[in-house]
Amino acid sequence: MKAPLYIAASLAIVAVCHAEPNDAKHPLFPSVPRTVVVIDSEAPPVVRAGLLQSTLILLPAEEKVATVFGGDTSSWVFDGGHVASRFISIKPKIAGSSTDVHIVSDHGNEYTLQLREISNDSDSHFDSKVFVTPGDQAGKDKLAAMPVFVPAAELDRAKREAAEATAKEATERKAAETKAEAYRSQYPGQLHFDYTWDRKKAGELGLQEVWRDDKFTYLRGHFQETPVLYETKDGKGSLINWDYNDGLYTVPKTVLQGYLTIGKQRLDFRKEGN
């Protein structure tokens, strides 16, 4: 006995509903990272890309991306990032599409790769990460040389940092000049000529003047032979640090009492009120 026509039709509809559509895509899987060698005289290496999947292209560690040229920019997305680096991300938007990409590094190396979307292939593995390296000796030599291109972002940053450094230096220099000018205008008032000594002995030894400011003690003279300078503490002579240049002693402290001596000659001086 034959089934009614409407039953047969229903079974046919159910069968169609449970069948896989002809254009259904199998899932894609990332492959392990691999390295491709680019040689100018040979065909560009093929990079397998997955639909709407990101594949990361990495230049050698010594290089950064200077610029990227993509053949089909409507069906593919190329992203070199906003900061100069060795990374480029590519992503196909249309199944079965292919294009090429040209990368110029900051060292002057040029890398060309052939990109192919593989969602219709029997092999469902796409390249997730691809390391690019030059195969020619000239390209390898460039890796050891200084960069020939400076990415625009780095150039702008360098210009900005140079301008900021120049402005900071000008500000600090102006502040230092202002401080020095103020010190010079106030310095005469900080000099104190309040020392006493035996003027007769001073003439024989060559001492002309003793004075101080808020940090140093000075002795000026015209000496045939440079005397040794001592500080007097508890009635005894004590060696102290001092600089001598062209008849001027500079002591980095206030000396309340001291003396100069050459052989048997000795000249004492003291601060008034001490």
Automatic annotation (TrEMBL):
Against InterPro entries, the record matches this protein to: Conjugal_tfr_TrbG/VirB9/CagX, VirB9/CagX/TrbG_C_sf
Q: Which residues form a coiled coil?
A: 153-180
Q: Where is the signal peptide, in residue numbers? A: 1-19
Question: What's in the keyword line of the UniProt record?
Answer: Coiled coil, Signal
Organism's domain of life?
Bacteria
Pfam families found in the cross-reference section: CagX
Q: What is this protein called?
A: TrbG/VirB9 family P-type conjugative transfer protein
Q: Which organism is it from?
A: Terriglobus aquaticus
